[in-house]
Amino acid sequence: MPLWERSLKIAAVSVLMVAGAAAPAQADEVEQVVNGGFDNGTDPFWTNAGMTIGLTDGRACVDVPGGTVNRWDAAVGQNDIDLVAGETYRFSFDASGDAGHVVRAITGLSVSPYDTYFEQSPVLGDWQHYEWTFTANASTAQGQVAFQVGGSPDPWRFCVDNVSLVGGVPPEVYEPDTGPRVRVNQVAYLPDGPKVATLVTESTTALPWELRGDTGRVLAKGTSTPRGVDASSGQNVHTIDFGKYRKQASGLTIAADGEVSRPFDINAQGYDQLRTDALKMYYTQRSGIEIRDDLRPGYARPAGHVDVAPNKGDSAVPCQPGVCDYTLNVRGGWYDAGDHGKYVVNGGISVWELLAEYEHNTGSRKLNLTIPESGNRVPDILDEARWELEFLLSMQVPAGKANAGLVHHKIHDQAWTGLPLLPHLDPQPRELHPVSTAATLNLAATAAQAARIYGKYDRAFAARALNAARTAYTAAKAHPDLLAPESDGVGGGAYNDSKVSDDFYWAAAELYLTTGEKQYSADILASPEHTADVFGQVAFDWASTAAAAKIDLALVPNRLPGLSGVKSQVVKGADKYLAIQRQHPYGVAYAPADNVWDWGSSSVIANNLVVVAAAHRITGKAAYRDGLLTGLDYLFGRNALNISYVTGYGEVASQNQHSRWYAAQLDPSLPHPPAGTLAGGPNSSIQDPVAQSLLKGCTGQFCYIDDIGSWATNELTINWNAALAHLIGYVAELDC
Fold first, then answer.
1. Nearest alpha-carbon partner for 116 in 168, 152, 66, 77
2. CA gap 614, 620 in Å, rounded
3. Where in the numbering of this chain does the Cellulase Ig-like domain appear (predicted)?
């Protein structure tokens, strides 16, 4: 689950950049900017201290000083702008600047908390016209239009003219570009695996199709199977099965109904690099360490939250007022999502998936992730997971303090920050939030899991982890109802969870698998989760962890009484997902009630497939292998939007996930998310302003947009990538 962003309120609808003047206002349109053409001097525009605005050839120009850090350190703007919630505005201007420099053009609040309602960051050069429309989601008489030009080490010159903010313009209709109507897995099909495409068509009868090589030569042909209207997209679709073609090849396409698909490969090693990339994403999410360019070219940045100004730092973080009387050193760990917060319950399920990949998929032990610890005789995947484990351990209340042994739920900023903002530039004070039973059990489960895995590499760490796990489990049993509140301040997500019986079950399972002790097996057998069907439409996530326990009980050797029953439950869960998949025209093992897609649906689908992978490991039956591979297709382009939800994989892929430092959409000097990063995916609830402006009334799969402002459909998170990494780790080891 990503975080609810409360200060960045972008509602972009369209972008137009052309030479020439702004579009003329209609009679019912109202101009909000005074003297935007600078015909009467420069008033009422202002500049930051240290800059002087002047006119050159009728255009307003400023000499921007060098040596500033943030965009807002140097700015030109106008205040007292009226905005009305729900009103659509056209924001336009002409501008030039020294080549390669960026202007952050915003409409926002001119007083604290300086909320941003709309922003774009074009790269400047010769004189050019810029124009966008957006819908305001707040009403104010204290708005502003501003051009933020700071952040450059060198001085440069910025000029602007014809500044306009016109209200009352008609909203523009958003039509996603879905490309060719033949939808395929744009990355790879395995030679001996299933190969299916989906055709969007008005035809209700079978149509001929061709599989073509990279030169256009026909390699196979057949006829499609009509499937009717797909409820998840509202499209009439056919399926195309070309599984009989098993030769390795690249640049293949499927042609049908006058359309040609995007290219794809048939390759037994098609997912090998993704296995590494999906795990390498964690290195650039690290807090408390410099990210080195030689280890991740293009992603270098200083260490974040290490007590170097403007950071307040994580070395001695106090609690929220009234929560505790101590500070904790909670440096390190992974930034949870697109912000600078760190959350135990989300870190817990993420660590579990990485450690489970190591434990269940032997090839992960040999991966070279080129991280700072590489070459230390410990598998890189364990070194990366330990970076987060050390943080989780640091969140435990020390002995001698109130609530000793329990674990703080989270640590994050006192208030939300805007985008973009590199971690080392975050100026907000940091706070520990109260302890919770769920966070305590997350530590108990993952620390117990770590104790059995790290023992052969670092006995002292394994012993420390097991001691922390035992302490946490005991503390949680003494305080079984400390639930995180639904609202817990601002600056981070709540991650509240009203049910913790699953977390008790998970922690008991991991402690039993590590120690074999009867006290833990007794708790497993007594848990209501042990006999319950926990494989619902969402197999597991940070808030539902019983399935994680059952998967480990089924796959890690142990002597639990009635173990065959646990294995049977996992297999039956997989059967449920395969039954859903067989009915789905896009082959998706996910069919939410009333077609209401979940937040983070991409990871829901991936984790459902993790259950299918576990069933394949338990039974060895090809049906589970084939279902697993078919399920991958959706993530990599065989979907209604014809987009791969993994950055860097597929001809058209998500690349603008919501993030404060992978923010190329807002600041071209910053990178896109690294290759192998999973986007959240369609979310029917469209909670953010961008999605609400563009996707109102969307159907299932269409409730997604690749925009950095859409934190509800397009964030990245450590737990979503954990689902991808775990799944691809298994796929990469399949012999087909």
1. 77
2. 10
3. 177-260
